[in-house]
Amino acid sequence: MEVRFHFSERRGEVAVVELPIDDADAALYTVGQVAAMLHVQVAFLRRLDELGAVVPVRSSGGQRRYSRREINRVAALMKLISEGLTLEGARRVLELQARVEELEADLDQARGQ
């Protein structure tokens, strides 16, 4: 998580403040905001949720809330689909990419890097 510093003029202190917006996993964006950002229909995002491709958290009122990480996943799926993959194929590619990253991290750790 990226850390922001906050200066309090009253006390002359600097405090470390972690803001939700700095957290890639903080669910801050509504389905409508994400649809507007990515130029897609809300129905497309709902379908991704129904199929388990991108599952946002739900607010206490039941509304979908997306994190930056989930938004990036939707964008990656869209790119792969635009290149001709099916949704299931695109999903599998992202799963395999994540697994490769895990294995590379394990290998780096085993090598002492």
What's the SSE blueprint?
Blueprint: E1 4-8, E2 13-17, E3 29-30, H1 31-38, H2 42-50, E4 57-58, E5 64-66, H3 68-82, H4 87-110
Antiparallel strand pairs: 1-2, 3-5, 4-5
Textual characterization of the structure:
The chain has 4 helices and 5 strands; from the N terminus they run βββααββαα. It has helices at residues 31-38, 42-50, 68-82, 87-110; strands spanning 4-8, 13-17, 29-30, 57-58, 64-66. It has a 3-stranded antiparallel β-sheet with strand order 3-5-4. β1 (4-8) and β2 (13-17) form a beta hairpin. α1 packs across α2 (42-50) and α3 (68-82) packs across α4. The two termini are 21 Å apart. The mean pLDDT is 86.
Structure in a nutshell:
This protein has helices spanning 31-38, 42-50, 68-82, 87-110, and strands spanning 4-8, 13-17, 29-30, 57-58, 64-66. It is of the alpha+beta class and 113 residues long. The chain is globular and about 45 Å long.
* Rg for CA atoms: 18 Å
Shape: globular
- The share of residues in extended strands comes to 15-25%
The topology string of helices and strands comes to EEEHHEEHH
Count of extended strands: 5
- How many H/I helices? 4
**Termini, distance in Å?**
21 Å
**SSE class:** alpha+beta
Oligomer: single chain
Q: What is the topology, as strand order, of the major beta sheet?
A: 3-5-4
What share of the residues lie within helices? Answer: 40-55%
**Main beta sheet: strand number and arrangement?**
3 strands, antiparallel
Summarize model confidence as the mean pLDDT: 86
Q: Which segments are poorly predicted (pLDDT under 50) over 5 or more consecutive residues? A: none
